[in-house]
Specification:
Arc Repressor Mutant, subunit A; DNA binding; cNMP-bd_dom_sf; Jelly Rolls; four-stranded antiparallel beta sheet; DNA-binding; 294 residues; 34% helix; disordered N terminus; transcription; Crp/Fnr family transcriptional regulator
Length: 294
């Protein structure tokens, strides 16, 4: 969801997402966009001030972080936000295991979570890394493929959930919410089909490059003026190995060779950048990319 300031130059009306107590803004919806508008209120001392209530400022930030609501009409998004619950999770915290699945949808606002399974021998396989703007969960009427999985926070994250009953109530009133689920489900199935083909037929190098490009197209922003493009997710060699069905040692060796070939680089810990030549053909069209952004 895009926010901007209508006044040229911005000044004191600039939007700073982490400083609402200083900014005192609230949402004002229009058909064309969402923008920030100064309002006024009366303080506890009876003094008329400019600003907005804490709830208004919080809702502005919450709505801006739920990628599922991208392109959803403002009235539907606003009503939707009244039904969600918010939760801060720590790095390494298990959000869900196969025995604690609840019928609800979850949205990642900040941070990254990992979806994975564990076999009888204790081996892990990661299905997805989901960053800001992503959606996961399952209801009685459909599933995004998470009902038998562990879900763990890879880094500190802020997530929100909506119960099944609330979602169905809103979906009957706003059919566009069902359309959003179908879009996400369709893309998730396509993505997993491609990964299964990679696992069955491709080398470790091919599988790793496919995964890195897929992650970039979900969470990266291409800058034509920059040779190396960062993937905006924290990545470890072990995590990559879990996702391509390989060993950490094989991933380490492959990354080293790719680095020597000038295709990847590692500017800091848990950060991978891809050479722009790998990204000349973007596999995801724009209508799919926006499902993973906010």
């Amino acid at each position: 969801m895009f926010f901007h300031n209508r006044q040229a130059g911005g000044g004191e009306n600039d939007f700073i997402e982490s400083h609402f107590s200083d900014s005192d803004y609230c949402l004002n919806f229009s058909k064309e966009d969402v923008y920030i508008k100064k309002t006024s209120y009366t303080s506890k001392k009876g003094i008329r001030k400019k600003g907005a209530s804490f709830m208004d400022r919080s809702r502005l930030w919450y709505l801006s972080k739920i990628g599922f609501l991208e392109n959803v009409p403002a009235d539907a998004a606003d009503e939707f936000s009244a039904h969600i619950r918010h939760q801060n999770v720590s790095r390494g915290e298990i959000i869900q295991d196969p025995q604690s699945v609840r019928p609800e949808l979850t949205f990642v606002k900040t941070g990254t979570v990992r979806l994975y399974t564990i076999d009888e021998e204790g081996r892990q396989f990661s299905y997805s890394l989901l960053g800001p703007g992503s959606t996961y969960g399952c209801l009685s009427t459909f599933s995004l493929g998470t009902e038998n999985m562990y879900i763990e926070a890879v880094e500190p994250a802020l997530i929100c959930t909506i119960p099944e009953a609330s979602y169905h109530q809103l979906a009957r009133k706003y059919p566009v919410l069902t359309e959003r689920i179908l879009e996400i489900l369709s893309e998730r199935l396509r993505e997993r089909g491609e990964m299964m083909e990679q696992l069955a037929l491709r080398s470790v190098k091919d599988r790793l490059l496919h995964l890195l490009k897929m992650l970039f197209n979900h969470y990266g922003t291409y800058n034509e003026n920059t040779v190396f493009q960062p993937i905006a997710l924290p990545l470890t060699q072990q995590e990559l190995a879990y996702m391509i069905g390989s060993s950490r040692e094989a991933v380490s060796q492959t990354l080293h060779r790719l680095s020597e070939e000038g295709l990847v680089r590692f500017p800091k810990r848990r950060t991978i950048e891809l050479h722009q030549s790998l990204l000349q053909e973007v596999p995801l069209p724009s209508y799919v990319q926006h499902l993973y952004t906010y």
